[in-house]
């Protein structure tokens, strides 16, 4: 995985297997509609100073419509658990694919979940343990 960081933007390239690469970028600023026509040209302009690999990646995209542009959205509050199942890491609280944040959150989640389950005296107390896990993790995730 490679990242190029700028003052108000970043671009990342991640190997995706079978000779494929996943690329993503972000530009901080006011949200705007990004028309399909000219996306590739504008993307090359926005990341012109980011080095040859970024330029080659964008240049290899066949069509403007192959470039997905959308603002980063906040996810609504969702339940991380029900009575007998729990979600952790990116499955519970998705985040930008940068610097291993999702993996780090999954490890933190697992430690807190294990601690709550260790303090659960009886399997019937599982819903309470899962609720306590969510309550402990919510401030960190926010």
What can you see in these coordinates?
The chain contains four helices and three strands; from the N terminus they run E-E-E-H-H-H-H. The relative contact order is 0.11. Strands 1-2-3 form a three-stranded antiparallel sheet, with helices on one face. It has helices at residues 39-46, 52-60, 101-118, 126-141; strands spanning 2-5, 9-17, 20-27. It is elongated, with a radius of gyration of 20 Å. The model has no long low-confidence stretch (mean pLDDT 86).
Shape summary: elongated
The average pLDDT score comes to 86
What is the SS-derived class? alpha+beta
Number of helices: 4
Q: Provide the spatial order of strands within the biggest beta sheet.
A: 1-2-3
Following the backbone from N to C, one meets helices and strands in this order, namely EEEHHHH
Beta fraction: 5-15%
**Major sheet attributes:** 3 strands, antiparallel
Radius of gyration: 20 Å
Number of separate strands: 3
Helicity, in percent? 25-40%
The parts where pLDDT drops under 50 for at least 5 residues are: none
Instruction: Please give the alpha-carbon distance between the first and last residues.
Output: 26 Å
Can I get a quick summary?
This protein is an alpha+beta fold.
């Amino acid at each position: 995985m490679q990242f190029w960081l700028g003052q108000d933007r970043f671009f990342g390239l991640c190997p995706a297997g079978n000779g494929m690469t996943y690329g993503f970028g972000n530009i901080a600023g006011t949200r705007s509609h990004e028309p399909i026509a000219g996306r590739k040209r504008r993307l090359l302009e926005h990341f012109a100073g980011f080095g040859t690999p970024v330029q080659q990646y964008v240049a290899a995209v066949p069509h403007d419509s192959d470039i997905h542009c959308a603002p980063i959205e906040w996810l609504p509050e969702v339940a991380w658990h029900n009575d007998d199942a729990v979600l952790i890491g990116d499955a519970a609280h998705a985040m930008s694919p940068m610097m291993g944040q999702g993996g780090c959150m999954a490890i933190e989640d697992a430690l807190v979940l294990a601690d709550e389950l260790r303090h659960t005296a009886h399997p019937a107390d599982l819903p309470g343990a899962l609720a306590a896990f969510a309550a402990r993790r919510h401030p960190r995730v926010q």
